[in-house]
Each structure stands twice: as structure tokens, then as C-alpha cells.
Amino acid sequence: MAQEPDTQPTMRADVLGDRLRASREAYGISLRELARRIGVSASLISQIETGKVHPSVSTLYSLASELGASVDELLFEDAPITSKPAGDRWAFLTDHPHMEPVQRGADRQVIELDSGVRWERLTTESVPGIDFLYLVYEPGGESSPKNGMQRHTGREWGYVIEGTLNVTVGFDEHVLEAGDSVAFDSTVPHRFHNEGDREVRAIWYVLGWQSGRPTPSS
Question: Among 11, 24, 45, 79, which has the highest number of CB atoms less than 10 A from its own CB?
Fold first, then answer.
């Protein structure tokens, strides 16, 4: 199978850090309190905010969930940061009828996450409640540690283009080869990892990821 052409977008850790800080401040929570709530060190949050490290996939979702933010809101510069819940995705599409339909491969928005994972957005704009992504898992790459699976609202579908991806959903382990696909409820604990010696490349679609921003505690 022909390999996806390599893209060369700018990958900036400081973008994620700046947006995490802005979202945290809009929500009105201290760095230490945010770290306490999601069960990580304040040092880790500080390093993410200063662009020194990238979060894992599971930490990214934990941050978004705790702040009531969308994942796109934390990742991409074109997603507005607000102190209100994200709008309905259909209302967004209605309000953006002329959204550019074609996303060129060389111009994708890209973020490098911790543990050998790269996300490339396949839409030209950030759409609330929808993640349409091209994923790359390096050998040994994982979405979360073995005993630290993630869960969030929504449902997701994945298709492996090349490589072998191990997918754990609940208590079930699945091995996906090129051409295989998977679909599951995202509220079920899940984890992805690459135990092979070659990259895994896949298309992933998450629908219904919601981020109703909770009221900050005083």
C-alpha cells in the first residue's frame, strides 16, 4: 500500500501551552488546583504551559474535560477560547456555510503528543463536537500508560492504513492490521498502543465529544 506523503506543517509546543494557560485562566482555576483535580503534578502542567513537554492523549482529554474545553480549543489557534460551553456543532456548520472544503495535506494543523503520538487535523477549521484526525503512532507509542486508560463522551471510529495497532476497549484487546477498522462508545475505558517496529498510520473520527464547562468552585 502506498504510504501517505509526509507533510511538513509547523509543530509548536508553545501553541498548546499558551492555549492551555488561556483556557485555565478563563475558567478561573490555579495551576496547582488543575493538577490536583486530574491527578498529575503541578510541575507537569507548568511544563506543558511553557511548551517544554507535550501531554499524553489521556492527559489532554483529562485537561479538556476538567476545564470544560474542547480538545480542539486547547490544540488549535483557530478554535475560540471562551468561558462558556462550546456551541452545538450543527449550529457551527450553519454559521460557517462557506467553510473551506479542501484541507491540503501539506497545510494540516499538527500536534505532537507525548509517548510517540502525532495528530493531524483533517478539517480546515475546528468543528465543535467533532474530531477528524490522521494519527501516527511511533513504535512504542501509546495513548496512555498500560494501567491508565482514557474515557470521554462520544463515539469513535478508526481505520488503520498501515502498521499494527493494539486497541483495548474495556476488558477486550483487539489487534488491528492495515485495512481493519473499529467503532466503540468512547465512555468505555480505552487505550491505543503500537507494539510493533514500524509506524502505525490511521484515520480517526470522534463524534459527540462534549465539553459543557462546569461552574468553577469558589
Answer: 45
